[in-house]
Structures are given as C-alpha cells and as structure tokens.
Amino acid sequence: MKQLAICSVLCAAVCAAHTIARAGACARAGWSPKVLTPKQLVIPRDGGLLVGAVMGFGSGSTRSGNPSLTNWHLHRGGRIVRLRHKVLAPGLTVYRPRKRVIGIWWLTPRKNKRSLRFGGRAGRSMAAPTVKKVETYMSTWKNFRGYTQHSQHVDARITGAAPKGAIGVIVYKRFDHKWVPMLFRRVPNVQAQQRGARNIGLYSSPGRCSGVVPGLQIPVDGHTVQLRWVDQFGRLSKASNMVKVTRR
After folding, report:
1. Which residues lie closer than 8 Å to 49 by C-beta, 6 or more apart?
2. Got the DSSP string for 127-165?
3. CATH code of 146's domain
4. Exposed, middle or buried: residue 49 (CB in 10 Å: 0-12, 13-18, 19+)?
5. Per-residue pLDDT tens digits for 163-215
6. From CA 184, how far away is CA 229, in angstroms rounded?
7. What pLDDT is recorded for position 11?
8. Does 7 reside within a domain?
9. Does the pLDDT value for residue 129 go beyond 90?
C-alpha cells in the first residue's frame, strides 16, 4: 500500500512537470497563401493577382516549398482560364491569366469565395526608390522568463514617398552576375506615404513561436543590394541605386 502511494506521488509529479513543459510549447505553425490585391480594385492589363505567404496554424498551411504557390484558376460559367505565375521573392508570387480576360471572374477552388474584376488600364512604371544606406544591427531584450535574448535587424534608409499603390519592397543581392530576390517586406501605408528620409525595417528576427518564410535570405554586412517597390498588382518599380550593407 505504501509502495502504491509512493508510485502515485511520483506519477503525479512527472505529469505535473510534463504539463508545465507543455505550457510553454508552441503550436505547430506553417505558411499559407493569402491574396494581397485588394478586392475592390480592377486588375490592369499589365498586372495580376498578388499572393503572399502568411503564418498559419491550420491544416492548410505548409512547412516546405513556396507557400505563395497555389493551384488556383479562374472560372465564369462553364469557362476556365488557367493562371501562369511568376515568383517575385520568397513567399511572394504574382498570377496572371494565360489569355486576356475582361469583367468579373471567380477564383477556383470555390472555397476562396472571391471574385476578381479584370480590364484596368496599364499603369505607368514606378520610380525607383532612392536608398541612402542599408544597415544590420543586433538588439537585446528580456523575454517573459527574464532571460536575455538577441534579435537581428536590417533597416533601409529611403528618401521620398512610395509610388501610388506600392505595398512593399523587394531586396535583391548580386549573385553570379544576376540580381537575386532575397526577401519581401510589406511597408505600412502611413510609412509608405512619408516624404522625408525615413527608416524602413526590412527584417527582424522572428519571435519564439514564429519563423521565416522558406527561401528567405537575410542581408548581411558586405552584401551589395538593390531595392524595388512592388505594387498591389505585382508590378515592380525600376531598381534602386546599389548599396553596400554595413553594420551599425
């Protein structure tokens, strides 16, 4: 009887320790595609449907591959139009119909419940961003348990307001005589419309239960980079001046 009581106490202690350990565990996260083109806008001839990757915790999320790639296509009545895609950056893809379409079409599969309107005029090419500098630095902070944590950051100093419709920037690095996309960063609307020189955060280390989109590359000290604006239809601006990443 005494042995049984001791066993019960030990089992309870083990279960309690397991529960405490599990309390700090993160849910299984992945990445899912999300349409970034606003619903109310008409998609122009030279644009498309911009799709980005967002972190999710459902069964539809993925941990590998490019999370912005989907098997969506357009349909209206009995007609189906396939979409061709172009990967703009890790976790960012633009989809365009394989043939010209006008009017309202629906995305398939139907669970998206999203209509798209095509037929807008082609837009003017966006001006390139003017980049003063790109810096990388570390910050130190305390987590909820009181432990010291370190985070990596990359900021760009840009002058002038973003072109109309721009929703973010893509960072490219020079590799094997080509400009390769490293990462995409959304820029808040208020920050995008500021006209003076200001800092735009290009990268920050993810939190404990977060992660980085597959394929993302972090600019480091010594990299030569360029930036381009990307608008809500997946159109790119001209490339910025070349800038060497420095350490703050």
Report:
1. 35, 37, 43, 83, 94, 95, 96, 116, 233, 234
2. PPPEEEEEEEEEEEEE-TTS-EEEEEEEEEEEESPPPTT
3. 2.60.40
4. buried
5. 888 999 999 998 888 999 999 999 877 566 666 677 899 999 887 677 888 89
6. 10
7. 45
8. no
9. yes
Question: What's the structural domain count of the chain?
Answer: 2
Averaged pLDDT, 227-241:
95
Q: Are residues 51 and 115 in the same domain?
A: yes
What confidence tens digit (pLDDT) does each residue in 59-113 have?
Answer: 555 555 677 777 888 999 889 999 999 999 999 999 999 999 999 999 886 555 6
Task: Look at the alpha carbons of 228, 217, 202, 241 in this order and tell me if their dihedral is positive or negative.
Answer: negative
Q: Within a domain: residue 171?
A: yes
**Distance in angstroms (rounded) separating the CA atoms of residues 118 and 114:** 13
